[in-house]
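> forwarded from #structure-qc
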């Protein structure tokens, strides 16, 4: 059972869809995970947020009582310098494992120590659709963030590694070289390791794929090494992935305010436009999704782009506020 399968099983667990046999199978899969795989499965403030709050409060409280009773005395919950919402999430994160596997598993895997690791202060940067922004991290790395995206990062990195989370969306990373501290970018679907390079991570929740494109240098991902001009597309539905050559000018066009499509399907085009212009689409004719588009747009309004797409496909459309209906 791979990480993607386990996530789906955890979603079934939180929704009460697992029978006794299913829970046992999930427990066995979790027990076989390494600490690194656990950190990939449960980014501190991404997947935990998604799963923990839906568990019954009484069940959470019971698990937390067991967790606090069995945890190492040296770790004091009240002494951690965490914002309240993060502290709550870390506790609930531990509670989920108590519910599934018992506190002995937490001690054996070192998960209890994660609460100490979470003492670092984290910040969240959210960029709404129709905008993009950038930030310089404490190590000198720079991140450019696309619309509809959320980046989660520590104010100061650890001595052994630099880890940030793309909770959702797309971000372009220019990583400062530090041979002693590898840089990790994690999303719900991807875990990228780099030393010094520039690359893009795209992982929107409403898209069926997660994508990494390397602009310069090298990265490690899913047991592969990707060099400049290479990309990897992971299918969220079945866990498969494709490694292929890319045009870096195309994959980084959004940073320069450009949109470049090369033989792109309508679904892909609309997803890009949605985050660029903060609009929502309703396509009434499903046959339109079979069309392919090759075009470059520079500093165009959404009205101009829709008019040009109309000429390419002969469809009709209406724009009402931020809603666009295509027929």
């Amino acid at each position: 059972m791979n990480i993607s399968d386990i996530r789906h099983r955890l979603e079934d667990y939180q929704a009460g869809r697992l029978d006794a046999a299913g829970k046992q199978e999930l427990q066995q899969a979790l027990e076989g995970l390494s600490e690194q795989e656990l950190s990939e499965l449960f980014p501190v403030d991404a997947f935990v947020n998604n799963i923990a709050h839906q568990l019954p409060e009484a069940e959470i409280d019971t698990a937390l009582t067991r967790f606090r009773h069995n945890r190492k005395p040296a770790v004091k919950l009240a002494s951690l310098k965490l914002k309240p919402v993060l502290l709550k999430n870390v506790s609930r994160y531990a509670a989920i494992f108590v519910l599934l596997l018992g506190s002995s598993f937490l001690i054996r895997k070192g998960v209890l120590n994660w609460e100490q690791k979470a003492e670092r202060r984290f910040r969240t940067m959210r960029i709404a659709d129709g905008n993009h922004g950038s930030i310089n991290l404490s190590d000198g790395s720079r991140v450019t963030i696309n619309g509809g995206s959320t980046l989660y990062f520590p104010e100061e990195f650890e001595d052994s590694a630099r880890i940030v989370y793309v909770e959702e969306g797309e971000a372009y990373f220019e990583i400062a070289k530090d041979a002693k501290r590898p840089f990790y970018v994690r999303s719900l679907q991807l875990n990228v390791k780099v030393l010094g390079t520039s690359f893009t991570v795209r992982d929107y929740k409403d898209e069926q794929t997660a994508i990494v494109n390397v602009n310069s240098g090298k990265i490690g991902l899913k047991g592969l090494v990707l060099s400049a001009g290479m990309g990897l597309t992971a299918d969220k539905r079945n866990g498969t992935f494709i490694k292929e050559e890319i045009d870096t000018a195309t994959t980084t066009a959004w940073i320069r305010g450009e949109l470049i499509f090369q033989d792109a399907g309508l679904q892909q085009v609309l997803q890009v436009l949605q985050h660029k212009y903060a609009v929502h689409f309703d396509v009434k004719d499903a046959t339109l999704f079979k069309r392919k588009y090759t075009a470059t747009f520079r500093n165009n309004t959404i009205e101009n782009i829709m008019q040009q797409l109309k000429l390419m496909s002969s469809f009709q459309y209406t724009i009402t506020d931020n809603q666009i209906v295509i027929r």
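QC bot note: The radius of gyration is 22 Å. Confidence is low (pLDDT under 50) at residues 44-64, 70-95, 102-118.
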